[in-house]
Amino acid sequence: MISAKKKKFKSAIEYEILLLPALLGFAIIFLYPAVKSIIYSFTDFSVFNRTISFIGLKNFIDIFHDDRLTAAIKNSTLYAVSFTVLQSAFAIPLAVALDSKIKTRNILRTVYYMPHIFSALIIGYVWSFNFSTSSFGLINNTLKDIGLGFLAQNWLGDPRIAIYSCIFVAVWQGTGYAMMLYVANLQSIPREMYESAVIDGASPFQSFRHITFSFLAPAMTITTLTGMIGGLKVYEQIVALTNGGPGYATETLTTALMYRGFTENRYGYASALAVIMMIGIMIISFIQLQILSKREDKLL
Predict the structure, then answer these.
(1) Buried b (16+ CB within 10 A) or exposed e, 215-248
(2) What does the alpha-carbon distance between residue 162 and residue 295 come to, in Å, rounded to a whole number?
(3) How far apart are CA 138 and CA 133, in angstroms?
(4) DSSP-assigned beta bridge partners for residue 54
(5) Would you give the end-to-end CA distance of the chain in angstroms?
(6) Which residue in 7, 215, 279, 285 is a FRET match for 232, CA 20 to 30 A apart?
(7) Helix ranges restricted to H, 41-161
(8) How far apart are CA 277 and CA 259, in angstroms?
(9) Left if phi > 0, otherwise alpha if psi is -120 to 50, otherwise beta: which for 63?
């Protein structure tokens, strides 16, 4: 009996040793920089200061009196919420359609998923050309060619609509990824349930509401969590499209952080913003996970 326990303990130790390289990489790449950022957030660390001085909560207090960061918080929240909702709103109908017996469903799945493969930076640059007001701007020129020139806009230069243009690009790129998650989830739903619903006289809408939508809860949890986190951390796409402009119209938390840190060289201040972002995303993710987990338990 004792020998068996020793063997089991030895086997567990061997498996844990195999985890050490991954844990070491995690500590070097993520844990160490995170701890250093937390430490620097309480200092006046900058290239202009020869010595680093402890300043307490000053950086954190200054953040909430910074007009640029106030706009960034507003835009990041709008971007994250809109992206998360619209991504699923388009992905679910697409997934349902492409889970049917359409002959070209595999080709269509590939087509819709392809934008997700490319870098957000590349997608941003491509759409910056599409949104351009110059002679090569695809959208405005197409509108003029079909007699709808009055709908042409300065899509990225108008402060009133620039953020919505950025959200459109994010939804265009991210819908395919969410669609594939929903398709995978749909394929796990027993077909017998739909057959029983038809026998009971349920309409297609009732089947969707009570069966499809309920069983999509796990995929919805994943897409909601990743959508909110990705939306709050968006950077490359905004840089490629507007670089945070015009003015602060598309400024996000990450673009503001990079500006304060690497343009103004206020590393301590930028570290404080990074800490606030990290805590905020952790809290939002925890709340989402609790709500969505309860929803899964209730529906399933």
Answers:
(1) bbbbbbbebbbbbbbbbbebbebbbbbbebbeeb
(2) 35
(3) 9
(4) 43
(5) 42
(6) 215
(7) 58-63, 67-98, 105-117, 120-130, 138-145
(8) 15
(9) alpha
**73 token code pair:** 């918080």
Tell me the C-alpha distance between 27 and 244, whole Å: 32
Pick the CATH number of 66-299 from 1.10.3210.10, 3.20.20.70, 3.40.50.720, 1.10.3720.10: 1.10.3720.10
CA distance 70 to 3: 63
Q: Where are the domains of the chain?
A: 66-299
Contact 86, 171 (CB under 8 A): yes
Task: Find the Cα–Cα–Cα–Cα dihedral 152, 154, 155, 159, rounded to 10°.
Answer: -140
Rounded CA-CA distance 225/231 in Å is 10
Give me the mean pLDDT over the 44-48 stretch: 85
The one-letter code for the residue type at 133 is T
Are 255 and 72 within 8 A, CB to CB?
yes
Q: How many residues does the chain have?
A: 300
Residue 112 CA, distance from chain mean position:
18
How many degrees, rounded to 5, is the angle at CA 220 between CA 255 and CA 166?
Answer: 30
Q: pLDDT, tens digit, for every residue of 252-284?
A: 999 999 999 988 889 999 999 999 999 999 999
Q: What pLDDT is attached to residue 25?
A: 87
User: What b/e string do you get for 174-207 counting C-beta neighbours within 10 Å, with b at 16 or more?
Assistant: bbbbbbbbbbebbeeeeeeebeebeeeebeeeeb
